[in-house]
Amino acid sequence: MTFTVRPISSTEHLDHIRSRRSVSFQQTPAWAAVKTEWRAESLGWYAGERLAGTGLVLHRPVPRLGYTLAYLPWGPDIDWAGGLTVWMPPLVSYLRSQGAFAIRVAPPVRTDIWSAAEVKEGIADPGVVRLTDLPGRADPVGNDVARYLCDSGWIPQNPESGFGAGQPQFTYEIPLRRPDGTARSEDDVLTGMNQLWRRNIKKAAKACVEVTASTGGEDLKAFHDLYVHTAERDRFTPRPLAYFEKMFTALRAEDPARISLYLAHHDGDLVAATIYVRVGGHAWYVYGASSTTKRDVRGSNACQWAMIRDSLAAGCDVYDLRGITPTLSTDDSHVGLIQFKVGTGGQAVRYVGEWDLPLRPIVYRAFDLYMRRRNQ
């Protein structure tokens, strides 16, 4: 089979996404309206007149040179198990013709999976420092993809810490279907959580914490105030309110059910808030915020449980808690993140990660040097 790659309309792109079970929200046409600092285009892979795959490309220009970094976050949406020798060359050819100095992809393909029990054992073992020290379960498709990219001149961009400027290579996910494809029940998911998580969910219910789902609007200001408070406490740089307003406007215009805001109140006080996104059978916990006061009523656990229940009701396949670092050392401050998420049951997942293909080596080396200096 031979493919050609050419631009498609947002309507054609969205129609194809609706036919798919799982596509990242960062590969939807709406995401282009969120990342307005990039120039975006939707691409289609055609076998004759049949649209077989899609990709949202974000172009970051190099000042004064006219070349761009062509970035496909968590994409493209192609058959990664179908032989990349027919899928990738037409993408490279098209983007080269459009003036890209490099292409960056982040294949939505797993390479390794570790169960909650395996992660817990690793944390308890002083001889285990990272997830990759554990045997886990390898995914042959993901490892084939990584081998193809490496053999084809692509360069991995995955920091050892697991977190970089792009997409996280390690995530934590709760499967919402059994291996035979049948849906899990709420009781089954709850039973899979550890005792602390179950107790905290019950504690929130007993304290009469009320969780409501919102479409954004004026509630976004309340979320953002709490989010800024969380950023000051946990020492990270918050995004501005305008970013979240743009995100809700763009994603809800594409699909009213695409994005929701969950608010946990206790006696009228906002104690936790989260942002939830769903595309087909994949649901994500995207952002969270919590109050330093009233932490004992467990508003964050209540929000998570509400989002998991709604994902089950929507017939989702997976609830995605997104990025973790691969550290399992109790001496590392980042281990608390994976300890919190492993309490939900589920599994830690390693993806292929982000890879660059330099098309104009001199420009790419200059760009790479600039990025390294900026991130120091």
TrEMBL record:
Keyword set includes Transcription: no
GO molecular function: aminoacyltransferase activity
One biological process term in Gene Ontology: cell wall organization
Family membership noted in the UniProt record: Belongs to the FemABX family.
Record flagged with keyword Lipid metabolism: no
Keywords assigned: Acyltransferase, Cell shape, Cell wall biogenesis/degradation, Peptidoglycan synthesis, Transferase
Name of this protein: Vancomycin resistance protein VanK
InterPro entries named among the record's database cross-references: Acyl_CoA_acyltransferase (IPR016181), FEMABX (IPR003447), PG_Glycine_Bridge_Synth (IPR050644)
PROSITE patterns noted in UniProt: FEMABX
